[in-house]
Design goal:
The chain has helices spanning 64-69, 142-148, 152-155, 199-207; strands spanning 2-8, 11-18, 21-27, 33-41, 47-48, 56-60, 79-83, 88-89, 94-96, 104-106, 108-114, 130-137, 140-141, 161-168, 177-182, 185-191, 217-219, 227-229, 234-239, 243-250. By secondary structure, it is mainly β. β1 (2-8) and β2 (11-18) form a beta hairpin. It binds magnesium ion (MG).
């Protein structure tokens, strides 16, 4: 099942995709819901980021080849940081290149979206707390990350967390291909089975620290091949069984 969030009549609305048609969801995607009226063909619907997190918990260096390319050690326990909800944009939206950075990188990542309140969850039960999965791009101002010595500024610019295009529900995410393309050229290509800490262990680890709410997002780390983006670029994150998240990069327009 695929759940989308989209622009409709009076505002954002959740829907289901069936045979490339979108149907409104009546009810609560985190509880009981049913299929409502047909909205239209998927190709004509303006999609939004598929969830509205209260927080985005991201994991650094969760693929050994990426830790190696950053000249970093492989962590012995998950290395977590936060991205703010204000950084979220949806499929097709612009990633705004900040004037105070000279180096902005793509990081293709599998995102797990939480389905019910989670606290102190054992790894053996962790998947019961996941509603579904989507594609994410953990955009990073690499020069500022190095300069600051911690990651808040570099990871938190508005538009630095593209999510989408929809939530894949009922997907086994343990061994999926994950790829990042810039202007059509493959830059990152790996499999989610190469994560150092799997999703179940990440949920256990994170929920020992903080309560996760429905709609919260875990970014599970990026494989090797991160590299810079330039204004005018088109960047795609594709994950098997989910789909393609596509965004463009631009300087902010003067009158915005
Ligand atoms: Mg990352």
């Amino acid at each position: 099942m695929k759940i989308v969030r989209f622009v409709w009549k009076n505002g954002p609305q959740y829907g289901l995709i069936e045979k490339n048609e979108v149907y409104a969801i009546m009810g609560d995607i985190f509880g009981d819901f049913e299929r409502g009226e047909r909205v239209g063909p998927l190709s004509e619907i303006q999609l939004l980021a598929p969830c509205t997190p209260t927080k985005i918990v991201a994991v650094g260096r969760n693929y050994a080849e990426h830790a190696s390319e950053m000249q970093s050690d492989v962590p012995t326990e998950p290395l977590i940081f936060l991205k703010p909800p204000s950084a979220v944009v949806g499929p097709g939206e612009v990633i705004v290149y900040p004037p105070i950075s000279q180096r902005v990188d793509h990081e293709a990542e599998l995102a797990a979206v939480i389905g019910r309140r989670a606290r102190d969850v054992p790894a053996s039960e962790a998947l019961n707390y996941v509603l579904g999965y989507t594609c994410a791009n953990d955009i990073t101002a690499r020069d500022l990350q190095c300069k600051d010595g911690q990651w808040t500024r570099s990871k938190s610019f508005d538009t630095f967390c593209p999510l989408g295009p929809w939530l894949a529900v009922g997907l086994d995410a343990n061994d999926l291909t994950i790829e990042c393309r810039v202007n059509g050229a493959v830059k990152q290509k790996s499999r989610t089975s190469r994560m150092i800490f799997p999703i179940t262990e990440l949920i256990c680890y994170i929920t020992q620290v903080m309560t996760l709410e429905p709609g919260d997002v875990i970014l599970t780390g990026t494989p090797a091949g991160v590299g810079s983006l330039q204004p005018g670029d088109r960047v795609e994150v594709e994950i098997e069984g989910i789909g393609v998240l596509e965004n463009t990069v631009a300087y902010r327009h003067h009158n915005e």
